[in-house]
Write a structure and sequence with these properties.
mainly alpha
């Protein structure tokens, strides 16, 4: 659900936004970069939890090593 946020910027910044980003897209233009660091924090926390799960890490390493072995056995195809 979207929430409304009111910002105050100077006239030069406001005019620049209208020149570069059309009126109907200003909210998204500002929200996307502001949201990224917040979402990244959640991702980092999730990855930390996953990395702490040693049983899962052992399974993932075994899967990865098997995958690398499978690929290594494949005949090389020249890119054309």
């Amino acid at each position: 659900m979207a929430k409304k946020l009111v910002m105050t910027i100077d006239a030069e910044g406001y005019n620049g936004l209208h020149r570069i980003v059309c009126r109907r897209r200003i909210s998204r233009f500002q929200a996307d970069p502001a949201r990224r660091p917040l979402v990244d924090q959640d991702l980092r926390a999730g990855y930390a939890v996953m990395a702490a799960d040693q049983e899962h890490e052992v399974e993932a390493a075994a899967w990865y090593e098997e995958l690398v072995g499978d690929v290594a056995d494949e005949p090389r195809r020249d890119r054309g």
